Amino acid sequence: MKKQNEKVRKFFDEYAAKFDALYGEDVRANLFNRIFRASVYERFRLAATDAERLCEGFSVLDVGTGPGRYLSLMAPKAGRLVGVDLSDGMLGPARARAELEGYTDKLELLAGDFLNVDFGEEFDLILAFGYFDYVFEPAAHFRRMNDLCRGILLATFPKRWHPLTIQRKIRYTLNRCPVRFYSLSNVNGYIATTDYAEADVIDIGREYYVRMNKGVY
Ligand SMILES: C[S@@+](CC[C@H](N)C(=O)[O-])C[C@H]1O[C@@H](n2cnc3c(N)ncnc32)[C@H](O)[C@@H]1O
């Protein structure tokens, strides 16, 4: 595994339980999280709305699925759910959540680097939330998502120029986890390389929420 990926995997293996807890009602209400993690909650809300555009039984690939909160969000309407993540520690809560909520029969969880996993299928919906922060060949990851997607792609990109960027860079550096940030022109540059009929970039504070649709839904 590449050195950068190894650092990311190690960081998320250790951070898994705390990261999962960020979605809990009481943690969301905490003032620190309402200020510093507002975009994490806003992207979750937007994804729920965007998924309504898909027909019952859609397939979803969640790239960097972490604790599988988005798989759980999609589960009632989806026909097939695939989550991929570098970190086994993160996949533990994703598996436990699926067992608790009863959707293991339509779920596949894969441990590994998204660029190297052979999926052998295309997906109606691809998600990449809080993912591009930790990848070091973003253009290649974005291209692969485009190749695997036949419907809607939803992704976030953390902003390079934002008051919260510096503290985040410092926090992650102290925790030995590499993190990267994007300008709006970086994001538009990736979009320009793809073949989606619609592409929107929505400013949600600390990050850009990207919604792309091949026009089939
Ligand atoms: C901040 S978490 C986001 C989890 C989830 N998408 C969410 O928003 O709740 C980022 C996840 O991406 C995973 N990740 C980073 N690089 C990856 C790669 N190359 N392939 C697969 N997963 C990766 C990390 O292990 C981590 O679990």
Briefly summarize what is shown.
The protein is of the alpha/beta class and 217 residues long.
Protein architecture, described:
- There is one protein chain.
- The protein is α/β, with parallel strands linked by helices and 217 residues long.
- The protein contains 9 helices and 7 strands, in the order ααααβαβαββαβααββ.
- The chain has a single domain (3-213), classed as Rossmann fold (3-Layer(aba) Sandwich).
- Helix 5 (69-74) links the parallel strand 1 and strand 2.
- It is globular.
- The mean pLDDT is 93.
- Bound molecules: S-adenosylmethionine.
- The site of S-adenosylmethionine has 20 residues, from helix 1 and strand 2.
Protein topology:
Layout: H1 3-21, H2 25-29, H3 31-36, H4 38-51, E1 59-63, H5 69-74, E2 80-85, H6 88-101, E3 107-111, E4 123-128, H7 138-148, E5 149-158, H8 165-174, H9 184-192, E6 198-203, E7 207-213
Parallel strand pairs: 1-2, 1-4, 2-3, 4-5
Antiparallel strand pairs: 5-7, 6-7
The protein binds S-adenosylmethionine.
**What is the number of E strands?**
7
Radius of gyration: 16 Å
| Main sheet: strand order | 3-2-1-4-5-7-6
Domain tally: 1
Oligomerization state of this entry? single chain
Largest sheet: 7 strands, mixed
Write out the distinct hetero groups bound to the structure: S-adenosylmethionine
Level-2 CATH architecture: 3-Layer(aba) Sandwich
Q: What's the pLDDT, averaged over the residues?
A: 93
In whole angstroms, how far apart are the ends?
A: 37 Å
Q: What's the CATH H-level homologous superfamily? A: Vaccinia Virus protein VP39
Low-confidence stretches: none
What is the 3D shape?
globular
Q: Which structural category do the helix and sheet elements fall into?
A: alpha/beta
The number of helices is: 9
CATH class: Alpha Beta
Helix content: 40-55%
**CATH fold-level label:** Rossmann fold
Strand portion: 15-25%
